[in-house]
Specification:
Elements lengths: L4 E8 L10 H16 L8 E5 L14 H7 L6 E4 L5 H14 L6 E8 L9 H8 L10 H16 L3 H15 L13 H6 L2 E3 L2 E2 L8 E10 L10 E10 L18 H14 L4 H4 L2 E3 L5 H10 L8 H6 L16 H5 L3 H17 L12 E8 L4 E8 L1
Parallel strand pairs: 2-3, 2-4, 9-10
Antiparallel strand pairs: 1-7, 1-8, 4-7, 5-6, 8-11, 10-11
């Protein structure tokens, strides 16, 4: 397959606690916003991909594409359900793009939606991992615990401090103040982050993203079909990598607990397709997977924004803040927006689309023409990277 695709419509619900809205309400709202921007109707959609990572820990919806057909009235349109841990939304977009390039359809819809607040935490993802996960993780697995070990290792290798982790939370909560769709929009201080409840040392509550409801959607067409659409954004490169299963990397004696090979592989593929030779120079804005503060620091290195061990300095120097040379998570990231798992990857793409359109409001990066998104899922084994351009 050759050629490129373009995003001609994007939609996103506010992220937060939506006890008054159903799973299908959220999916429909995001999809209709994306279709309206594209000037299209549900019947114009040739195929769709529905990203929901964990239907059995939320509201028991999203097990198949039927839930999107019902929400939008798509009729006989083929809809495929996608699940790939925290990279679910990115994978839905990847599949939609590939279908367009293969000639399978002319208009593709990629939707991510997750409703997690209707169940208490001990009945949600934690319970799922205890009952169905790898035996090595069943009695004590948490997402925070998985990534906390990377922070500990980097403390030893690079002298990382807890204050460096807290600075990520401070930055992203400050950014979220200008994002009306973010779950949490209140600024925090380093002292507040350090004093918040411990979760998995050295991570505290404010080092962790909240559990959230939300949905996001994008409409894609082939590049040649996008010329009639104003505000279109080109998908210059996509990369997806799965480097291990549940028994690795943690059972791999060669694994360094400093970075994620899956992210580096996905970035390598996306950069090659997009013609990115120097990410620190060529990328103008990025939305990366800061499910925990340590993850943003690692992502900046794995994506080539700086050398290994230098991401904390990158932040301290103001490079990744709004107004800096390469703002990272100007919408507040997962730390502030929240992380409805299946929706996050699509939300990131939505936010970069708005940046490149110059419609990001108080979160706008002036003159942004090249944007990047990055998701990481599972134990750091699944990764998605996209490069979008004007």
């Amino acid at each position: 397959m050759s050629g490129r695709v373009a995003i001609v419509g994007a939609g996103c619900t506010p992220f937060g606690e939506h006890f008054d809205l159903s799973y299908t309400d959220l999916a429909a709202a995001a999809s209709r916003e994306a279709l309206a921007e594209a000037g299209l109707r549900p019947r114009d959609v040739g195929a769709a991909w529905l990203g929901t990572a964990f239907p059995d820990v939320g509201v028991f919806r999203g097990r198949s594409g039927m839930d999107l057909v019902e929400a939008l009235g798509l009729g006989a349109c083929p809809v495929t359900r996608v699940s790939n841990y925290c990279a679910t939304g990115g994978d839905a977009i990847r599949n939609a793009a590939n279908a367009l390039l293969a000639g399978d359809c002319d208009v593709a819809l990629a939707v991510g939606v997750e409703k997690q607040r209707d169940r208490p935490p001990q009945e949600s993802i934690v319970k799922l991992m205890v009952e169905t996960g790898h035996p090595f993780y069943q009695k004590g697995f948490t997402a925070a615990g998985t990534f906390a070990v990377f922070a500990v290792r980097r403390m030893k290798e690079f002298g990382l401090k807890r204050e460096d982790l807290a600075a990520v939370s401070v930055k992203n909560h400050a950014h979220a103040a200008g994002n009306p769709r973010a779950h949490h929009r209140k600024a925090v201080t380093v002292e507040q982050v350090l004093a918040s409840a411990p979760v998995a040392w050295p991570l505290t509550l404010l080092d962790c993203c909240p559990t959230t409801d939300g949905a996001a959607a994008v409409v894609l067409v082939r590049e040649e079909d996008a010329k009639k659409h104003s505000g279109r954004v080109l998908v210059a490169g996509l990369g997806f990598a799965v480097t291990s299963g549940w028994d690795a990397p943690f059972h791999d004696p060669a694994f360094d607990f400093i970075g994620f090979p899956a992210v580096r592989e996905a970035a390598k593929a996306a950069y090659a397709r997009a013609g990115i030779g120097n990410p620190a120079r060529d990328v103008h804005v990025a939305e990366v997977h800061d499910c925990f503060t340590i993850n943003e620091l690692i992502a900046c290195e794995d994506l080539g924004f700086c050398r290994r061990g230098e991401s904390a300095k990158l932040l301290a120097d103001g490079v990744t803040k709004l107004g800096g040379k390469l703002p990272v998570n100007p919408g507040g990231g997962l730390l502030s927006c929240g992380h409805p798992v299946g929706a996050t990857g699509v939300r990131m793409v939505h936010d970069i689309v708005r940046q490149l359109q110059g419609k990001a409001g108080k979160c706008q990066v002036p003159g942004a023409r090249v944007g990047l998104t990055q998701n990481i899922g599972g134990p750091g084994a699944v990764a998605f990277v996209s490069v979008l351009t004007t």
